[in-house]
Amino acid sequence: MKYYIIAGEASGDLHGSNLIKALKNKDSNAEIRCWGGDLMQVAGGTLVKHYKEMAFMGFLEVLLNLSTIFKNIKFCKNDIAKFDPDVIIFIDYSGFNLRIAEWAKQRNYKTNYYISPQIWASREGRINKIKRNIDAMYVILPFEKEFYENKHGFPVHFVGHPLIDAIGNRNTLDEKTFWLANNLDSDKPIIALLPGSRKQEVHKMLQLMLSVTDDFPEYNFVIGGAPSLDDDFYKPFLVNTNVGFVANKTYDLLNISHAALVTSGTATLETALFKVPQVVCYKANWLSYQIAKRIITLKYISLVNLIMDKEVVKELIQDDLSAKNIKNELAKILSGTGREKQLEAYNLLENKLGGEGASEKAASLIVENA
Fold it and tell me: Which of 18, 51, 260, 338 would staple 332 via disulfide (CB 3.0–4.6 Å)?
């Protein structure tokens, strides 16, 4: 069969690549065309457009790039029509994907959604578009099944979280090799700095994260560079010789880290699954934040706290994100009860996520229902 997959971010590329591998295992004749990234291409998809060309963050940034976004939508529709797939698979990236889904449904394409739009966080009214335009939904967070089925009467499949497979199936790097390759002081434990995957995020978060490095001289601070950004982008942040940098090796970095400062997003859950205590950091431009806080109805912003429905990790948001607060909260998780409580909660979190095999389960259902 012919599959058309649309992902618009680095995390979507990761999960999309594992889905492509699973689809090829289930369907030996699978022909896959995709929007995503390098990982999806390596997995066997024909890459149409890279997510680096589509990564716009926040309300203001979207407004400033509307012309590009509309051109991408038009191009996507034309490309789908030429390819004429048996099924279209949307991965997160809701602003773009729900527009394409509406168009696709009107033309009788089979529409599947893997990794739900976060309508439980904001703009819940989008459920009407989903009900109208999506044939099947595969969710990865345990509370999403109840949200869709009990609250909105829309049946979905809970397949578990694909990060469990992504982490479990990774190629591990010897710790000593990692230290030597990145010129790190092996006598000092590592504090990972994960400032996000978009330029706007990194500019806002990384300088604040770096402001506390002198307060913890007994630790190595290492920036985890995102695959969506070039190495040269990080050079202005590396004037401090006590700060290390590794590009596109987040899992290797987390695997040997003692603690982490993490920008809210998928990385908070990845950090938890690696059992690394963390402080969550988030700061948007003023306009985007003012709009967001009026439409987002959640108590928490990190996936860790959302899944556990309580504050497991400290969230420093907007005005609370200061050098002083980062220093204080980081100190609490380097040792003692603050660290122990996070690690205990992480074990419970992993149990809630449904175990291994998310990509295989989703692929089986997609092939069966196509």
Answer: 338
Paired residues of 87 in beta bridges: 3, 110
Tally Cβ neighbours within 10 Å of residue 321.
19
CATH-assigned architecture of domain 2-161+356-369: 3-Layer(aba) Sandwich (3.40)
* Backbone dihedral angles phi then psi of residue 308, each to the nearest 5 degrees: -80, -15
Amino acid, res. 293: K
Which residues fall within 8 angstroms of residue 108, CB to CB, at 6 or more apart?
none
- Which segments of the chain belong to CATH 3.40.50.2000? 2-161+356-369, 169-352
Q: Compute the distance between CA of residue 96 and CA of residue 74 in angstroms, rounded to an integer.
A: 11
CATH class (in words) of the domain with range 169-352: alpha beta
Residue of 343, 355, 5, 367 lying closest to 164 (CA atoms) = 355
pLDDT digits over 300-354, tens only? 889 999 999 999 999 999 889 999 999 999 999 999 999 999 999 999 999 899 8
Distance CA 25, CA 122 (A): 36
Q: What is the pTM of this model?
A: 0.82
Radius of gyration of the chain (CA): 20
